[in-house]
Amino acid sequence: MSNHDMTAKAVILAGGVGTRVGLGIPKQFLKVAGKPVLHHTLDVFETSNHISEIIIMMNPEWLEEAHDLVARGGFSKVTMICPGGETRNETTKLALANFADDDIVLFHDAVRPLIDERIILDCVKTLQEFHAVDVVIPSADTLVVIDPEGMITQIPNRSTYRRGQTPQGFRAQLLRDAYVIADQDPEFQATDDCSVVLKYRPDVPIATVAGTEYNMKVTEPIDLFLVDKLFQVASLELDERSLEERTSALQGKVAVIFGGSEGIGLAIAQQLSALGATVHSFSRSTTGTDVANLDDVEKALASAAGESGVIDLVVNTAGILRIGKLADQDFSQVQETVSINYMGAVNVARASHKYLAAGKGHLLLFTSSSHTRGRAEYSIYSSTKAAVVNLGQALADEWSQDDICVNVVNPERTSTPMRTKAFGDEDPATLLTSDAVASSCIDVMTTRTTGHVIDVRVQI
Asked: Which DSSP state fits 239?
């Protein structure tokens, strides 16, 4: 069975009330990075190739808000929103009533919004062989055992200990059987589902897959701050799409590419054309189109729309890289960098909106790895690229009501004419090719994901 054929059903556990966060509403509805925590979590499962259906188990007092969130977010895989029980275990049993015995089901905390596709796939793959799986990470801290007075009684070897996360995955029949046995135990207590299987079906091995430190749970007030910051630097991991998937999603689409005469822009144009899309490319060198000039951008888009009727995809790869200390640069050089790298993205976004809104289209912008921290002699370049990330994330939220997807691609060092001009010849093994970056961009454009920074890295 190929990875693409492996699927599971997901239960999003959203019954918490958020008393420890102390903000008066359930923590799954608190906003981080511009959206409710639950929205971010659902987005990952909605866009996963390995999830076929989503059921939300919700705090009964917040069912209406959950329905509104799902409707606004367009989460088509959500088939049910059900009231949860008084405990985590009661909620699991209520959810299990909706599944067949042979269903593979992943149970995930709604307040772990930084779950990624790799973890989901690893869980689904593992459940092809085992009937239960947990997601775990090592402990970086020393673990201690204390007595009721708070005195240390033991310091175990942490190498054999792991911290449990979610999802926890099961064959539905196994978990159902474990709870039937557990219900007969008058002293039954459990905080998660794997512990129920471990205690009441000890004959069944529970496999583990590696989680990540990013996959943290929003529990304490500081967690909101940390998760918000992590969203600023987190990247989306996408499975490579097959040729059939790419063709199905992009054949017949109309794309406009700014900066399409060379490098990454040219590679995207060529790959889109090969998939059957109509591509309109614009650049300063070939069409005299300067993204720093709003009038140029508007004319380019009007020309493409006039010729093709619609615009489905807009990509802006236009950029300029100057290296040097800020104090040594002429103001005209600073102004040009800001105008092309940042105002160019603003102009493309502003002028594209009406076309993309008409067809629920996709806007793709580009940043640089220096967006997370400014670098000496890159001060203007780095800061404009950080601004593009903020712009893309803000527009994804702002344009969600128009069903426009906005994402930002962050390629590592890439062999392009712009880079060669700035740095000269470099070892090709340390650089991405324009075609590799373009391929990742194609994958992004086949999805309805939005608001993400997509890292493209050199594969060692």
From this structure: P
How far, in Å, CA of 83 to CA of 164, rounded?
25
> What is the spatial distance between Cα 382 and Cα 385, in angstroms, rounded to a whole number?
5
Evaluate whether 246 touches 126 at the Cβ level (below 8 Å). no
Could you give the C-alpha distances from 282 to 257, 279, 326, 404, in angstroms and in order? 6, 10, 30, 22
Q: Which residue from 319, 339, 324, 334 is spatially nearest to 409, judged by alpha carbons?
A: 319
DSSP state of 369: G
Is residue 186 within 8 A of residue 106, CB to CB? The reply is no
Structure-block tokens of residue 223: 């967690």
Closest of 433, 437, 436 to residue 408, by C-alpha: 437
Distances (CA, A) of 35 to 47, 85, 397: 17, 26, 7
Quick one: tokens of 381?
A: 């370049």
Q: Which two tokens stand for residue 115?
A: 């779950």
The reported pTM is 0.69
Q: For 37-52, what is the mean pLDDT?
A: 94
DSSP string, 87-133: SHHHHHHHHHTTS-TT-EEEEEETT-TT--HHHHHHHHHHTTT-SEE
Could you please report the per-residue DSSP string of 1-30? --GGG--EEEEEEE----TTTTSSS-GGGS
Residue 311's SS3 state is: coil
Query: pLDDT tens digits, residue range 414-427?
Result: 667 777 666 677 77
User: What digits encode the pLDDT tens for the residues 124-166?
Assistant: 999 999 999 999 999 989 999 999 999 999 999 999 999 999 9
Token pair recorded at residue 387: 């601004």
Nearest-CA neighbor of 73 among 103, 47, 104?
A: 47
Q: Say if strands 152-154 and 145-146 run parallel, antiparallel, or are unpaired.
A: antiparallel
Question: Which residues on neighbouring strands pair with residue 14, listed in sequence order?
Answer: 58
Instruction: List CB contacts of 267: < 8 A, sequence separation 6 or more.
Output: 433, 434, 435, 437, 438
Residue 319 to residue 336: CA distance in whole angstroms: 10
| Residue 9: partners with Cβ closer than 8 Å, 6 or more residues away | 51, 52, 53, 54, 55, 99, 103, 104, 105, 106
Residue 108 clears pLDDT 80, i.e. is over it:
yes
